[in-house]
Every structure is written in C-alpha cells, then in structure tokens.
C-alpha cells in the first residue's frame, strides 16, 4: 500500500500568519510523518497562512462572517474531505459546543503557555509579570471550555530576567513548531 495513502488526513483552522501551519506542512512531508495536511480553513481572507496552503497546493477556503456560518460551512468541508483530525493553529475564535459535538473527530489546539496556567490571551506578558520561572507551550484536545481540554504534550523554556514578552514569544514559537507535529504523530 502506498505510504501516502496511510497518512491521516488533517485540516487546520487559522486566523493569521500561519507559522504553525507552515511548520505542520513542513513536518507532514517527512517520511516518518503519520499525517497529511488536506485542508486549510480561515475565518479571515487576509490570513497569511492561506498563502502557504496555496503554495503547497493544499485545498483552502476563507469563510468570513458569523461564527455560525463558518462552523456550518467548515463542517461540510471536513466531511467532504474525510478529515480525521482538526488542528487549530492561531485560530482566534472559540468553537461552539454544537460544532465540537458534530465534528466527531479529535480537535486539537496549541497554546503558548504551560496549561492549566495562563489560559486565554497575552500569556507572555502575564508570565513575566507574575514572575514565572518557566513558560512554554501545550498541545491539548479542545473541549467547550477555553484552553481546558486534556493535555497531549508540553514543552517548556526558562524565562530569563532579560526576557520581554516579545523575546519570550519568539522562544515559545520555536517550541510550538516542534511540539505540534510531535503531538499530532502521538495521537495518530
């Protein structure tokens, strides 16, 4: 059987620059990868990540407007393309309980903190302000509560005295690029 046909079909939801998407695509092309990025969906036409999808000949769609509309259209696309896992990568909307129940596939997310610490936004600023010794990233299953699903894997980094939210964000993003593919291959 052709190795490519045994790879699990993955969809990625994005809202922005798509650096985690770019990394997932790069890792998906490796021989030992267990997944293939089949579909990229964004809630913003201007998302730079759509450019990476096009460049790599991956089917992609921008669905702007109300969350309900995005969820309805994306559910149809997930079914149509026989997607087995959904990854959120910088997707800045909270998916509804209804959507999560209807997908019937694992939905995973990457978050720039060591969950359960620092759920939500501005994690780097908060980590520094609260004088945490470490921060990092968490890949977790998505449930209806924000950043609260079961953790698949975490990577951590020491916060240095000289770190700013910007330098910390850069260090953590490097970890994210490794952690996301690792977690994906782990759950397949």
Descriptive notes:
The chain has 188 residues and is of the alpha/beta class. The protein has two domains: 1-105, Formyl transferase, N-terminal domain (Rossmann fold), CATH 3.40.50.170; 113-137 and 148-188, no CATH class. 36% of the residues lie in helices and 23% in strands. The protein contains six helices and seven strands, in the order E-H-E-H-E-H-E-H-E-H-E-E-H. It has a seven-stranded mixed β-sheet with strand order 3-2-1-4-5-6-7, with helices on both faces. The protein starts with 7 loop residues before the first strand and ends with a helix. The model has no long low-confidence stretch (mean pLDDT 95).
Secondary structure layout plus pairing:
Elements: E1 8-14, H1 19-28, E2 35-42, H2 49-55, E3 59-62, H3 67-80, E4 85-88, H4 97-103, E5 107-111, H5 123-129, E6 134-141, E7 151-158, H6 165-187
Parallel strand pairs: 1-2, 1-4, 2-3, 4-5
Antiparallel strand pairs: 5-6, 6-7
Quick overview:
The chain is 36% helix and 23% strand. By secondary structure, the chain is of the alpha/beta class.
């Amino acid at each position: 059987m052709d190795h490519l046909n045994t790879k699990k079909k993955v969809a990625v939801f994005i809202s922005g620059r798509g650096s985690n998407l770019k990394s997932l695509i790069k890792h998906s092309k490796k021989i030992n990868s267990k997944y293939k990025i089949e579909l990229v969906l964004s809630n913003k036409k201007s998302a730079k990540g759509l450019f990476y999808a096009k460049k790599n000949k991956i089917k992609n769609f921008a669905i702007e407007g109300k969350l309900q509309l995005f969820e309805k259209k994306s559910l149809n696309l997930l079914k149509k393309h026989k997607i087995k896992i959904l990854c959120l990568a910088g997707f800045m909307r909270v998916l509804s309980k209804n959507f999560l129940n209807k997908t019937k596939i694992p939905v995973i997310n990457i978050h720039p903190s060591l969950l359960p610490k620092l759920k939500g936004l501005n994690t780097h600023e908060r980590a520094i302000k609260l004088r945490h010794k470490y921060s990092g990233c968490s890949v977790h299953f998505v449930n209806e509560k924000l950043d609260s699903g079961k953790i698949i894997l975490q990577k951590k980094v020491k916060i240095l005295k000289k770190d700013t939210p910007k330098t910390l964000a850069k260090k953590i993003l490097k970890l994210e690029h490794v952690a996301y593919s690792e977690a994906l291959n782990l759950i397949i």
